[in-house]
Structures
1.
Amino acid sequence: MYPEEFRYTKEHEWVTVSGEIATIGITDYAQQQLGDIVYVDLPRVGDAVMAGKTMGSVESVKAVSDIYSPVTGEVVEVNATLAEAPEKVNQDPHGEAWLVKVKLADAEEINRLLSAAEYQSYIEAVQR
Amino acid sequence: MSLPAGLRATPLNPIHRRLGARMVDFGGWDMPVYYTGILEEHHAVRRSVGLFDVSHMGEIDIRGPEALALINYAATNDAGRLTPGRAQYSALLHEHGGFVDDILVHMVAPDHYFLCVNAANQEKDYRHLKAINRFDAEVDYSSDRYVQLAIQGPRAQATLQKLTPVALEAIRYYHFVDGEVCGRPARIARTGYTGEDGFEIYLAPESADRTWEAILEAGAEFSIRPCGLGARNTLRLEAKMALYGHEIDASINPFEADLAWIVKMEKGDFHGRRALLQARDSVRRKLVGFEMRGRAVARDGYEVYLDGRPAGWVTSGGPAPTLGKNIGLAYLPVEAAEPGRVIHIGIRDRQLEAVLVPTPFYKRGKS
């Protein structure tokens, strides 16, 4: 369910790094909690994001939820397909519905995030 | 699976959990927000039929020789116009003219009125009615004696008809019949909170499980869906039906809430009337409907700006799945409350454009 090569936050974002570029999304658990997603508010290319700070929001039919950046850096790409098809976040949260790509300021930063196994036990604990 | 401490549950709670519903604390009640998804459930009601457990709603019986006198003093609409088997939307007000609650009044008999009231307000309503009762009438708190199910949508009648000998075709909108569903006594009312045709039925808690299952089975050929409070909210918002705690509360009077039609000033004295006499000529804010221009979603509590200045607030907002737009209701100064007017909604750090539109947002076609 939760890809081994990803890192995770307790706010239910995932991040995967290739070179100096981090791809960020929200987890399957997050999309399940939110229900039908109708709008994704993302930063713009060139915006600076900071680890632990709000970088956007996801709107479901029922509620709005902040997205926190798992890393610090500069937004280099935004998933434009989500503007017209936000429901993709429900359908493929770990794949096609990535949110943004960020050029990392500090490549070591992601080592502080949760592993897949740690995230899995975290959500099991909060569900109990 | 144990219930979170302090939450109340309807008799159908175990069934909701078995169906895998996502549960939410709604005014102290552990209720399903959705089973499979709000959008799917919403569309099921608009296009075919949906089943809601609304047993959290409260019931109060008023009985006695002066039952009419009490309900007509307590509530704003004119219950004197009812005949047995008819229902009426009405409101209980504070002395100062603000809402205690909005309610449905059913006339069972000349000496018996049956009220359906909001879940979170039921104890308050009961105390309020007792406190203002100076008539030869008894106020009976009867919520524990009823389960309430809502069968809503264009296929509601075809679904429910399989389970009752009562000729549903003959029950007109805002009328009700005391009959049977699944061989057990039930009050069957053609009322609802979705803007769609449908029924709300009241029955004994012991009959809840089998009636719920029987309705789902009867509606299977119409792809009936069990529906949660999420869809109930998007449906009622499209139909611009008020929700206590959002459009109405103790600080709002019926004229502001666009509910003047349930206030019958000429019927004689009622609780809150004196305050309304004054309020009527000095209404400063009004409930209006708006559509967002972009894809952003306005939510309740967000600030509304007119020409850059804060001027009101959003009472309810969200996607309107039937319309494919994001809509909302807001209080604004009366002089600005004109369809076509451009307003801005404060959404996080931005002010995003919306336009005032006529309401209701959705009105079903006549069948």
2.
Amino acid sequence: MTDKLVIADREFQSRLLVGTGKFASCEIMAEAIEKSGTEVVTVALRRVDIENENDDMLAAIDRDKYLLLPNTSGARDAEEAVRLSKLARAATGINWVKLEVTPDPYYLLPDPVETLKAAEILVQDGFVVLPYINADPILAKKLEDAGTATVMPLASPIGSNQGLQTRAALEIIIEQANVPVVVDAGLGLPSHAAEAMEIGADAVLVNTAIAAAADPAEMAVAFKLAVEAGRTARLSGPGAVSRRASASSPLTGFLRNK
Amino acid sequence: MLFLFFGGVIKVEVLNINGAERQFADGVPATIADLLNHLGIKAATVVAEIDGTIVHRDKFAKTNLRHGQSIELVRFAGGG
């Protein structure tokens, strides 16, 4: 298979990125990551809980196998996002960051102005920046021009499982982008992921839909297959959509006289 | 701060760790590595910030602490 996802200078076989939040245990998370076939997993950066020193989820992730992609979740403005990015770089030793600036606690929608500002600073500082954005084609272009490695437009609000509410705007972003488009947030079912791939997304990021499933490992398999199916369909050139029927059986030789 | 205690001098010092003040009856730990050891935190997955400046793990044992500093200790958690 020569169809590879290329982000910055790295090649990936899998077009499914997986988030590590909300899993019931590290074991369940590790199994789901394995089954998903992913090569990129996102993580958040948080204060160490000094009174309750037990949480070392990193031990469950094989860093030789998976690229760790730290996010800047919790950042409310560009300054906080830059600070988190630098801490993450110090922690991972690599300069990739999923840039998230979400000041709104109810819908967790990304702040476009602060995101662009942070992206410009981080790109200048040598980061490989993957920004989480609303499905805004103009913003996507500006980020690309600023030197981000991808754009990551949302399908619907984080963790909402609503699927591709932003489809029309996503299609414009995909049409215009010269960097990979990773559809992130809100993909609740494998069919949503397949749909994103069918309309030409380069990859998708899924967390809640896998982590919150009754059987996360099996749901991870389902998303893996859906992403592969959607990508293959995209490359196969889907047929045109029309309002009227177009017979698939011959319109001659009917068993009737007139 | 200096307090007279049983005729001797005890040096109570404080650090602000992850937003909360913490007192050390016998002075702050000498280094970040000592502090982590004191708190029972494995250094392997931690990144520290002292007064806004990042301290890399390989410098933990060489980075001295002083009374009154603000320390952030962070590590990765699950996230999307």
